[in-house]
Amino acid sequence: MEFGLFRNILTFLNKKLYVEKITDTGFRYIGLIIDDYFDNSILSIDFLNLDYYLSDIGDIVFDEKENLLDLYLDIPTEKRILLIEKVLTILKKTSYNKEENEQIIEMVLNFLKNNSYIIINDDSTLEILKDKFIGEGSYCNVFQESERIVRKTLKPEYLKEENFRTRLRYEFENTFKLKDSPNIIKVIEYNAEDNSYTMEKCTDDLYSFIQKNIEIPYESKVNIALDILNGMKFAHDNGIIHRDLHLGNILQIRNNFVIADFGWSKDIHVLRSLKSSSSPKSNNRYVAPEAISDFNKLDEKTDIYSIGQILDDIFRGTLSSRHNFSSIIDKCVDRNRENRYDSIDLIIDDFNSCLKADNDEKLKNKRFEDIRESKYNIQVREYLLELVEKSLLSRFIVDHRLVNFSELLLHFTKHEQIILMKSIDETFPSATGYNGWHNYDLFTNIAHSIYKNSDNGEIKNIALNIIKYCAENINRYHAQMILERLNY
Hints:
By secondary structure, the chain is α+β, with helices and mostly antiparallel strands. It is 51% helix and 12% strand. It is built from 20 helices and 14 strands. The strands form 5 sheets. It has a 5-stranded antiparallel sheet, with helices on one face. A hairpin with a 3-residue loop joins strand 5 (133-136) and strand 6.
Protein backbone atom coordinates (compact mmCIF):
# COMPACT_ATOMS: atom_id res chain seq x y z
CA MET A 1 0.00 0.00 0.00
CA GLU A 2 1.31 3.42 -1.00
CA PHE A 3 2.56 5.60 1.89
CA GLY A 4 0.23 8.53 1.17
CA LEU A 5 -2.82 6.30 0.96
CA PHE A 6 -1.86 4.54 4.20
CA ARG A 7 -1.33 7.82 6.03
CA ASN A 8 -4.70 9.16 4.87
CA ILE A 9 -6.50 6.06 6.19
CA LEU A 10 -4.72 6.22 9.56
CA THR A 11 -5.57 9.93 9.81
CA PHE A 12 -9.25 9.16 9.16
CA LEU A 13 -9.29 6.30 11.68
CA ASN A 14 -7.62 8.48 14.29
CA LYS A 15 -10.54 10.92 14.10
CA LYS A 16 -12.95 8.07 14.79
CA LEU A 17 -10.97 5.92 17.22
CA TYR A 18 -8.61 8.31 19.08
CA VAL A 19 -11.23 9.88 21.31
CA GLU A 20 -12.06 10.69 24.91
CA LYS A 21 -11.97 7.72 27.27
CA ILE A 22 -13.11 7.44 30.91
CA THR A 23 -11.52 5.17 33.52
CA ASP A 24 -13.47 3.29 36.18
CA THR A 25 -12.66 6.12 38.62
CA GLY A 26 -14.06 8.78 36.28
CA PHE A 27 -10.70 10.06 34.96
CA ARG A 28 -11.02 11.45 31.42
CA TYR A 29 -8.22 11.30 28.83
CA ILE A 30 -7.70 10.98 25.06
CA GLY A 31 -6.79 7.52 23.82
CA LEU A 32 -7.43 4.76 21.31
CA ILE A 33 -10.61 2.75 21.90
CA ILE A 34 -9.45 -0.18 19.75
CA ASP A 35 -8.54 -2.22 22.84
CA ASP A 36 -12.04 -1.80 24.27
CA TYR A 37 -13.57 -2.85 20.98
CA PHE A 38 -11.27 -5.88 20.85
CA ASP A 39 -12.14 -7.00 24.38
CA ASN A 40 -15.84 -6.93 23.45
CA SER A 41 -15.50 -8.92 20.25
CA ILE A 42 -15.35 -12.63 19.44
CA LEU A 43 -11.68 -12.09 18.55
CA SER A 44 -10.83 -12.01 22.25
CA ILE A 45 -11.86 -15.67 22.45
CA ASP A 46 -9.24 -16.79 19.94
CA PHE A 47 -6.43 -14.39 20.93
CA LEU A 48 -4.93 -13.77 24.37
CA ASN A 49 -4.97 -9.99 23.99
CA LEU A 50 -4.78 -7.20 21.43
CA ASP A 51 -0.97 -7.32 21.31
CA TYR A 52 -1.11 -11.01 20.39
CA TYR A 53 -3.74 -10.30 17.70
CA LEU A 54 -1.49 -7.59 16.20
CA SER A 55 1.79 -9.46 16.71
CA ASP A 56 2.27 -10.29 13.00
CA ILE A 57 2.36 -6.55 12.22
CA GLY A 58 5.73 -6.23 13.95
CA ASP A 59 7.35 -5.82 17.36
CA ILE A 60 5.12 -2.93 18.35
CA VAL A 61 3.42 -2.91 21.75
CA PHE A 62 -0.05 -1.41 21.56
CA ASP A 63 -0.31 1.79 23.62
CA GLU A 64 -3.79 3.25 23.92
CA LYS A 65 -2.36 6.70 24.71
CA GLU A 66 -0.61 6.89 21.34
CA ASN A 67 -2.55 7.57 18.17
CA LEU A 68 -2.43 5.29 15.11
CA LEU A 69 -0.05 7.53 13.17
CA ASP A 70 2.50 7.57 15.96
CA LEU A 71 2.22 3.83 16.51
CA TYR A 72 2.11 2.41 12.99
CA LEU A 73 3.01 4.95 10.29
CA ASP A 74 6.53 3.54 9.93
CA ILE A 75 5.69 -0.17 9.77
CA PRO A 76 7.04 -2.11 6.75
CA THR A 77 5.22 -1.46 3.47
CA GLU A 78 4.10 -5.07 3.14
CA LYS A 79 2.35 -4.87 6.56
CA ARG A 80 0.19 -1.81 5.84
CA ILE A 81 -2.74 -3.65 4.27
CA LEU A 82 -2.64 -6.24 7.04
CA LEU A 83 -2.91 -3.54 9.73
CA ILE A 84 -5.92 -1.90 8.04
CA GLU A 85 -7.58 -5.32 7.65
CA LYS A 86 -7.09 -6.07 11.37
CA VAL A 87 -8.39 -2.72 12.58
CA LEU A 88 -11.49 -2.96 10.36
CA THR A 89 -12.05 -6.56 11.44
CA ILE A 90 -12.11 -5.45 15.10
CA LEU A 91 -14.77 -2.85 14.21
CA LYS A 92 -16.68 -5.50 12.26
CA LYS A 93 -16.73 -8.05 15.06
CA THR A 94 -17.13 -5.90 18.19
CA SER A 95 -20.47 -5.53 19.97
CA TYR A 96 -19.90 -1.77 20.52
CA ASN A 97 -21.33 0.98 18.30
CA LYS A 98 -22.32 -1.36 15.45
CA GLU A 99 -24.00 1.28 13.29
CA GLU A 100 -21.15 3.79 13.54
CA ASN A 101 -18.57 1.06 12.96
CA GLU A 102 -20.32 -0.08 9.78
CA GLN A 103 -20.14 3.47 8.45
CA ILE A 104 -16.40 3.67 9.23
CA ILE A 105 -15.76 0.33 7.51
CA GLU A 106 -17.81 1.32 4.45
CA MET A 107 -16.00 4.65 4.07
CA VAL A 108 -12.53 3.07 4.29
CA LEU A 109 -13.40 0.25 1.89
CA ASN A 110 -14.97 2.63 -0.63
CA PHE A 111 -11.84 4.77 -0.45
CA LEU A 112 -9.74 1.69 -1.19
CA LYS A 113 -12.03 0.58 -4.04
CA ASN A 114 -11.65 3.99 -5.65
CA ASN A 115 -7.91 3.41 -5.55
CA SER A 116 -8.18 0.07 -7.40
CA TYR A 117 -8.16 -2.23 -4.40
CA ILE A 118 -10.27 -5.38 -4.45
CA ILE A 119 -12.38 -5.95 -1.35
CA ILE A 120 -13.73 -9.21 0.05
CA ASN A 121 -16.23 -8.42 2.78
CA ASP A 122 -18.67 -11.13 3.77
CA ASP A 123 -20.01 -12.53 7.04
CA SER A 124 -16.78 -14.27 7.96
CA THR A 125 -14.05 -12.45 6.05
CA LEU A 126 -12.72 -8.98 5.47
CA GLU A 127 -9.80 -8.93 3.06
CA ILE A 128 -8.14 -6.17 1.05
CA LEU A 129 -6.44 -7.31 -2.17
CA LYS A 130 -3.82 -5.19 -3.80
CA ASP A 131 -0.56 -6.98 -3.21
CA LYS A 132 -2.28 -10.01 -4.79
CA PHE A 133 -2.20 -8.45 -8.24
CA ILE A 134 -1.30 -11.31 -10.59
CA GLY A 135 -1.53 -9.90 -14.10
CA GLU A 136 -3.06 -7.51 -16.57
CA GLY A 137 -4.48 -7.34 -20.07
CA SER A 138 -5.03 -4.47 -22.45
CA TYR A 139 -7.85 -2.97 -20.40
CA CYS A 140 -8.18 -5.11 -17.24
CA ASN A 141 -6.24 -6.07 -14.14
CA VAL A 142 -6.47 -9.50 -12.52
CA PHE A 143 -6.32 -10.01 -8.74
CA GLN A 144 -6.28 -13.18 -6.73
CA GLU A 145 -9.47 -13.55 -4.75
CA SER A 146 -8.86 -16.97 -3.20
CA GLU A 147 -6.75 -20.03 -3.85
CA ARG A 148 -8.76 -20.99 -6.94
CA ILE A 149 -10.65 -17.79 -7.85
CA VAL A 150 -9.46 -14.50 -9.39
CA ARG A 151 -11.24 -11.25 -10.13
CA LYS A 152 -10.89 -9.46 -13.45
CA THR A 153 -11.61 -5.74 -13.20
CA LEU A 154 -11.39 -2.71 -15.47
CA LYS A 155 -8.28 -0.62 -15.07
CA PRO A 156 -8.97 2.70 -13.29
CA GLU A 157 -8.41 4.74 -16.47
CA TYR A 158 -11.25 2.87 -18.22
CA LEU A 159 -13.85 2.90 -15.44
CA LYS A 160 -15.65 5.95 -16.82
CA GLU A 161 -15.66 4.78 -20.45
CA GLU A 162 -18.96 3.17 -21.39
CA ASN A 163 -17.56 1.13 -24.30
CA PHE A 164 -15.08 -0.64 -22.03
CA ARG A 165 -17.69 -1.30 -19.36
CA THR A 166 -19.94 -2.76 -22.06
CA ARG A 167 -17.10 -4.83 -23.44
CA LEU A 168 -16.33 -6.34 -20.03
CA ARG A 169 -20.02 -7.18 -19.50
CA TYR A 170 -20.25 -8.87 -22.93
CA GLU A 171 -17.07 -10.78 -22.16
CA PHE A 172 -18.64 -12.18 -19.01
CA GLU A 173 -22.05 -12.89 -20.56
CA ASN A 174 -20.74 -14.68 -23.66
CA THR A 175 -18.28 -16.72 -21.59
CA PHE A 176 -21.03 -17.64 -19.12
CA LYS A 177 -23.16 -18.94 -22.01
CA LEU A 178 -20.38 -21.51 -22.64
CA LYS A 179 -20.16 -22.69 -19.02
CA ASP A 180 -20.97 -26.31 -19.95
CA SER A 181 -17.75 -26.77 -21.92
CA PRO A 182 -14.70 -28.09 -20.04
CA ASN A 183 -12.54 -26.29 -22.62
CA ILE A 184 -13.85 -22.78 -21.87
CA ILE A 185 -12.80 -20.87 -18.76
CA LYS A 186 -15.45 -20.80 -16.02
CA VAL A 187 -16.74 -17.37 -15.02
CA ILE A 188 -18.70 -17.06 -11.79
CA GLU A 189 -20.28 -13.71 -10.96
CA TYR A 190 -20.43 -10.24 -12.48
CA ASN A 191 -20.28 -7.17 -10.26
CA ALA A 192 -21.76 -4.12 -12.01
CA GLU A 193 -20.85 -1.77 -9.16
CA ASP A 194 -17.08 -2.11 -9.58
CA ASN A 195 -17.08 -3.41 -13.20
CA SER A 196 -15.48 -6.75 -12.49
CA TYR A 197 -16.20 -10.46 -12.54
CA THR A 198 -14.80 -13.54 -10.88
CA MET A 199 -13.47 -16.60 -12.69
CA GLU A 200 -11.41 -19.70 -12.03
CA LYS A 201 -7.69 -19.18 -11.57
CA CYS A 202 -5.26 -20.25 -14.29
CA THR A 203 -1.56 -20.93 -13.89
CA ASP A 204 -0.20 -19.77 -17.25
CA ASP A 205 -1.07 -18.81 -20.80
CA LEU A 206 -0.09 -20.92 -23.81
CA TYR A 207 2.52 -18.42 -25.01
CA SER A 208 4.39 -18.54 -21.69
CA PHE A 209 3.95 -22.32 -21.50
CA ILE A 210 5.61 -22.81 -24.89
CA GLN A 211 8.42 -20.40 -24.01
CA LYS A 212 9.15 -22.16 -20.73
CA ASN A 213 8.98 -25.72 -22.10
CA ILE A 214 11.39 -26.16 -24.99
CA GLU A 215 10.66 -29.87 -25.34
CA ILE A 216 6.91 -30.40 -25.04
CA PRO A 217 5.99 -34.10 -25.45
CA TYR A 218 4.13 -34.85 -28.67
CA GLU A 219 1.15 -36.30 -26.74
CA SER A 220 0.88 -33.06 -24.73
CA LYS A 221 0.83 -31.00 -27.93
CA VAL A 222 -1.96 -33.17 -29.31
CA ASN A 223 -3.98 -32.75 -26.10
CA ILE A 224 -3.52 -28.96 -26.15
CA ALA A 225 -4.68 -28.82 -29.78
CA LEU A 226 -7.74 -30.93 -29.01
CA ASP A 227 -8.60 -28.75 -26.00
CA ILE A 228 -8.60 -25.67 -28.25
CA LEU A 229 -10.47 -27.32 -31.13
CA ASN A 230 -13.17 -28.78 -28.87
CA GLY A 231 -13.56 -25.50 -27.00
CA MET A 232 -13.98 -23.47 -30.19
CA LYS A 233 -16.33 -26.09 -31.67
CA PHE A 234 -18.54 -25.69 -28.60
CA ALA A 235 -18.41 -21.90 -28.90
CA HIS A 236 -19.30 -21.87 -32.60
CA ASP A 237 -22.02 -24.50 -32.09
CA ASN A 238 -23.56 -22.13 -29.55
CA GLY A 239 -23.31 -19.08 -31.78
CA ILE A 240 -20.29 -17.45 -30.09
CA ILE A 241 -17.45 -16.17 -32.29
CA HIS A 242 -14.28 -15.35 -30.37
CA ARG A 243 -12.64 -12.86 -32.79
CA ASP A 244 -9.46 -12.44 -30.71
CA LEU A 245 -7.82 -15.86 -30.57
CA HIS A 246 -4.09 -16.01 -29.89
CA LEU A 247 -1.67 -17.82 -27.57
CA GLY A 248 -2.21 -15.30 -24.76
CA ASN A 249 -5.93 -16.09 -24.62
CA ILE A 250 -5.40 -19.84 -24.17
CA LEU A 251 -4.92 -20.43 -20.44
CA GLN A 252 -3.61 -23.42 -18.49
CA ILE A 253 -5.52 -24.99 -15.60
CA ARG A 254 -3.42 -27.85 -14.24
CA ASN A 255 -2.92 -30.23 -17.21
CA ASN A 256 -5.64 -28.73 -19.38
CA PHE A 257 -5.97 -25.62 -21.52
CA VAL A 258 -9.07 -23.45 -21.77
CA ILE A 259 -10.13 -20.59 -24.04
CA ALA A 260 -10.56 -17.24 -22.30
CA ASP A 261 -10.87 -13.49 -22.95
CA PHE A 262 -14.10 -13.26 -24.93
CA GLY A 263 -13.91 -9.45 -24.83
CA TRP A 264 -14.25 -9.12 -28.61
CA SER A 265 -16.63 -12.07 -28.93
CA LYS A 266 -19.95 -11.91 -30.72
CA ASP A 267 -23.15 -13.86 -30.17
CA ILE A 268 -24.64 -14.29 -33.64
CA HIS A 269 -28.06 -14.88 -32.03
CA VAL A 270 -28.09 -11.38 -30.49
CA LEU A 271 -28.90 -8.55 -32.90
CA ARG A 272 -27.31 -5.89 -30.70
CA SER A 273 -24.19 -7.85 -29.96
CA LEU A 274 -20.99 -5.90 -29.34
CA LYS A 275 -19.46 -4.70 -32.60
CA SER A 276 -15.79 -5.18 -33.36
CA SER A 277 -13.73 -2.12 -32.60
CA SER A 278 -11.71 -0.36 -35.24
CA SER A 279 -8.88 -0.03 -32.72
CA PRO A 280 -5.82 -2.13 -33.56
CA LYS A 281 -5.36 -5.57 -32.02
CA SER A 282 -2.00 -6.42 -30.43
CA ASN A 283 -1.64 -9.83 -32.10
CA ASN A 284 -2.03 -9.14 -35.81
CA ARG A 285 -0.26 -12.39 -36.80
CA TYR A 286 -3.40 -14.23 -35.72
CA VAL A 287 -5.79 -11.92 -37.59
CA ALA A 288 -6.93 -13.11 -41.02
CA PRO A 289 -5.70 -10.93 -43.94
CA GLU A 290 -9.18 -9.72 -44.88
CA ALA A 291 -9.73 -8.35 -41.35
CA ILE A 292 -6.40 -6.64 -40.69
CA SER A 293 -7.69 -3.30 -41.99
CA ASP A 294 -11.33 -3.88 -41.05
CA PHE A 295 -12.00 -5.72 -37.80
CA ASN A 296 -15.72 -5.72 -38.54
CA LYS A 297 -14.98 -8.64 -40.88
CA LEU A 298 -14.02 -10.92 -37.99
CA ASP A 299 -16.25 -14.03 -38.09
CA GLU A 300 -16.16 -17.85 -37.95
CA LYS A 301 -13.71 -18.03 -40.87
CA THR A 302 -11.31 -15.62 -39.20
CA ASP A 303 -11.52 -17.69 -35.99
CA ILE A 304 -10.47 -20.68 -38.10
CA TYR A 305 -7.52 -18.67 -39.46
CA SER A 306 -6.44 -17.88 -35.88
CA ILE A 307 -6.78 -21.55 -34.91
CA GLY A 308 -4.45 -22.48 -37.78
CA GLN A 309 -1.81 -20.05 -36.54
CA ILE A 310 -2.13 -21.42 -33.01
CA LEU A 311 -1.80 -25.03 -34.23
CA ASP A 312 1.30 -23.97 -36.15
CA ASP A 313 2.78 -22.51 -32.94
CA ILE A 314 1.99 -25.72 -31.04
CA PHE A 315 3.44 -28.20 -33.53
CA ARG A 316 6.29 -26.19 -34.97
CA GLY A 317 9.53 -28.10 -34.41
CA THR A 318 7.81 -31.43 -33.76
CA LEU A 319 9.30 -33.31 -36.71
CA SER A 320 7.26 -36.46 -36.18
CA SER A 321 3.96 -34.59 -36.38
CA ARG A 322 4.69 -31.62 -38.63
CA HIS A 323 4.20 -33.67 -41.80
CA ASN A 324 0.84 -35.00 -40.62
CA PHE A 325 -0.76 -31.72 -39.51
CA SER A 326 0.80 -29.28 -41.99
CA SER A 327 -1.99 -29.74 -44.53
CA ILE A 328 -4.60 -28.86 -41.87
CA ILE A 329 -2.67 -25.75 -40.87
CA ASP A 330 -2.23 -24.69 -44.50
CA LYS A 331 -5.97 -24.98 -45.12
CA CYS A 332 -6.82 -23.01 -41.96
CA VAL A 333 -4.52 -20.09 -42.83
CA ASP A 334 -5.19 -19.92 -46.56
CA ARG A 335 -5.26 -16.24 -47.58
CA ASN A 336 -8.39 -16.93 -49.60
CA ARG A 337 -11.11 -17.38 -46.98
CA GLU A 338 -13.15 -19.50 -49.40
CA ASN A 339 -10.42 -22.15 -49.32
CA ARG A 340 -10.46 -22.44 -45.52
CA TYR A 341 -12.45 -24.99 -43.57
CA ASP A 342 -16.16 -24.20 -43.39
CA SER A 343 -16.43 -25.41 -39.78
CA ILE A 344 -14.33 -26.54 -36.85
CA ASP A 345 -16.03 -29.95 -37.08
CA LEU A 346 -14.20 -30.49 -40.37
CA ILE A 347 -10.88 -29.49 -38.78
CA ILE A 348 -11.47 -31.99 -35.97
CA ASP A 349 -12.34 -34.74 -38.48
CA ASP A 350 -9.10 -34.18 -40.41
CA PHE A 351 -7.10 -33.80 -37.21
CA ASN A 352 -8.37 -37.14 -35.90
CA SER A 353 -7.64 -38.77 -39.27
CA CYS A 354 -4.07 -37.48 -39.17
CA LEU A 355 -3.79 -38.52 -35.56
CA LYS A 356 -5.00 -42.03 -36.39
CA ALA A 357 -2.49 -42.28 -39.23
CA ASP A 358 0.25 -41.10 -36.91
CA ASN A 359 -0.81 -43.53 -34.19
CA ASP A 360 -1.03 -46.33 -36.77
CA GLU A 361 2.53 -45.56 -37.84
CA LYS A 362 3.70 -45.63 -34.23
CA LEU A 363 1.82 -48.89 -33.66
CA LYS A 364 3.36 -50.32 -36.80
CA ASN A 365 6.88 -49.37 -35.67
CA LYS A 366 6.24 -50.80 -32.20
CA ARG A 367 4.88 -54.01 -33.72
CA PHE A 368 7.92 -54.40 -35.98
CA GLU A 369 10.20 -53.88 -33.00
CA ASP A 370 8.35 -56.55 -31.00
CA ILE A 371 8.60 -59.01 -33.91
CA ARG A 372 12.34 -58.39 -34.28
CA GLU A 373 12.78 -59.05 -30.57
CA SER A 374 10.50 -62.15 -30.70
CA LYS A 375 7.97 -60.55 -28.30
CA TYR A 376 4.58 -62.19 -28.57
CA ASN A 377 1.42 -60.11 -27.99
CA ILE A 378 -2.05 -59.80 -29.46
CA GLN A 379 -0.99 -57.13 -31.97
CA VAL A 380 1.87 -59.31 -33.23
CA ARG A 381 -0.39 -62.35 -33.46
CA GLU A 382 -3.10 -60.56 -35.44
CA TYR A 383 -0.60 -58.96 -37.78
CA LEU A 384 1.26 -62.18 -38.66
CA LEU A 385 -1.96 -64.11 -39.21
CA GLU A 386 -3.13 -61.27 -41.44
CA LEU A 387 0.08 -61.67 -43.46
CA VAL A 388 -0.71 -65.39 -43.84
CA GLU A 389 -4.12 -64.55 -45.31
CA LYS A 390 -2.42 -62.27 -47.85
CA SER A 391 0.36 -64.82 -48.58
CA LEU A 392 2.92 -62.22 -47.49
CA LEU A 393 4.48 -63.86 -44.44
CA SER A 394 7.58 -65.18 -46.23
CA ARG A 395 8.10 -61.86 -47.96
CA PHE A 396 7.88 -60.09 -44.60
CA ILE A 397 10.53 -62.43 -43.13
CA VAL A 398 12.88 -61.67 -46.02
CA ASP A 399 12.33 -57.91 -46.03
CA HIS A 400 13.06 -57.63 -42.33
CA ARG A 401 15.74 -60.36 -42.10
CA LEU A 402 13.96 -62.10 -39.24
CA VAL A 403 16.70 -64.61 -38.40
CA ASN A 404 15.09 -65.34 -35.02
CA PHE A 405 11.57 -65.82 -36.35
CA SER A 406 11.43 -69.39 -35.03
CA GLU A 407 11.59 -68.11 -31.43
CA LEU A 408 8.50 -65.99 -32.03
CA LEU A 409 6.60 -68.69 -33.94
CA LEU A 410 6.89 -71.14 -31.04
CA HIS A 411 4.84 -68.75 -28.85
CA PHE A 412 1.76 -69.41 -31.01
CA THR A 413 -0.66 -72.26 -30.40
CA LYS A 414 0.08 -75.56 -32.15
CA HIS A 415 -2.77 -74.95 -34.59
CA GLU A 416 -1.46 -71.47 -35.41
CA GLN A 417 2.11 -72.79 -35.76
CA ILE A 418 0.86 -75.23 -38.41
CA ILE A 419 -0.90 -72.39 -40.27
CA LEU A 420 2.23 -70.21 -40.17
CA MET A 421 4.58 -73.02 -41.24
CA LYS A 422 2.31 -74.06 -44.13
CA SER A 423 2.27 -70.46 -45.34
CA ILE A 424 6.07 -70.31 -45.28
CA ASP A 425 6.35 -73.69 -47.03
CA GLU A 426 4.06 -72.53 -49.83
CA THR A 427 5.53 -69.08 -50.40
CA PHE A 428 9.19 -68.99 -49.37
CA PRO A 429 10.71 -69.91 -52.79
CA SER A 430 9.07 -66.90 -54.48
CA ALA A 431 9.92 -64.63 -51.55
CA THR A 432 13.69 -65.23 -51.73
CA GLY A 433 13.95 -62.80 -54.65
CA TYR A 434 16.20 -62.59 -57.69
CA ASN A 435 19.72 -63.79 -56.82
CA GLY A 436 18.57 -64.09 -53.22
CA TRP A 437 20.34 -67.38 -52.61
CA HIS A 438 21.26 -66.38 -49.07
CA ASN A 439 17.53 -66.11 -48.25
CA TYR A 440 17.21 -69.88 -48.72
CA ASP A 441 19.70 -70.22 -45.88
CA LEU A 442 17.52 -67.88 -43.80
CA PHE A 443 14.49 -70.18 -44.24
CA THR A 444 16.67 -73.26 -43.71
CA ASN A 445 17.78 -71.96 -40.31
CA ILE A 446 14.23 -71.05 -39.28
CA ALA A 447 12.95 -74.50 -40.30
CA HIS A 448 15.86 -76.24 -38.56
CA SER A 449 15.17 -74.38 -35.29
CA ILE A 450 11.46 -75.24 -35.50
CA TYR A 451 12.31 -78.90 -36.20
CA LYS A 452 14.57 -79.13 -33.14
CA ASN A 453 12.27 -77.27 -30.72
CA SER A 454 8.82 -78.52 -31.69
CA ASP A 455 7.25 -81.67 -30.31
CA ASN A 456 4.48 -81.73 -32.90
CA GLY A 457 4.93 -84.25 -35.76
CA GLU A 458 3.01 -82.23 -38.37
CA ILE A 459 5.00 -79.09 -37.63
CA LYS A 460 8.32 -81.00 -37.76
CA ASN A 461 7.39 -82.50 -41.13
CA ILE A 462 6.64 -79.07 -42.63
CA ALA A 463 9.98 -77.78 -41.33
CA LEU A 464 11.77 -80.80 -42.80
CA ASN A 465 10.13 -80.22 -46.19
CA ILE A 466 11.50 -76.67 -46.26
CA ILE A 467 15.04 -77.88 -45.49
CA LYS A 468 14.82 -80.65 -48.15
CA TYR A 469 13.64 -78.18 -50.79
CA CYS A 470 16.60 -75.91 -50.11
CA ALA A 471 19.03 -78.86 -50.14
CA GLU A 472 17.68 -80.90 -53.08
CA ASN A 473 15.95 -78.38 -55.38
CA ILE A 474 18.22 -75.38 -54.81
CA ASN A 475 21.38 -77.38 -53.96
CA ARG A 476 22.20 -75.15 -50.99
CA TYR A 477 25.23 -76.64 -49.23
CA HIS A 478 24.09 -75.28 -45.86
CA ALA A 479 20.76 -77.13 -46.12
CA GLN A 480 22.52 -80.33 -47.27
CA MET A 481 24.80 -80.27 -44.21
CA ILE A 482 21.78 -79.88 -41.92
CA LEU A 483 20.03 -82.85 -43.60
CA GLU A 484 23.14 -84.99 -43.00
CA ARG A 485 23.12 -84.05 -39.32
CA LEU A 486 19.46 -85.02 -39.19
CA ASN A 487 20.36 -88.42 -40.79
CA TYR A 488 18.49 -87.69 -44.03
